[in-house]
Design a protein that fits this description.
Structural class: alpha+beta
Shape: elongated
Distance between the termini: 27 Å
Strand order of the largest sheet: 1-2-3-4
CATH topology: Ubiquitin-like (UB roll)
Largest sheet: 4 strands, antiparallel
Number of domains: 1
CATH class: Alpha Beta
Order of helices and strands: EEEEH
Length: about 60
Amino acid sequence: MKSESALGIRCNSGDKVKTGINVVEFFGIYFGAKSMTICSKCGSEYLSQNVMEEIEAEVRKRGL
């Protein structure tokens, strides 16, 4: 994971989140390295709406 910058937004854990790039994988299916926000305390990852749409399009393309 590559951490880039603090956003001033807080996670439910109470800590700040940072933008970063991390590998996205669901149910063993690799979707590549994507930009996301990541909590520095609990590690929760939040994908943007655009990234979610890309992943959903790939899922439909693969017929999953």
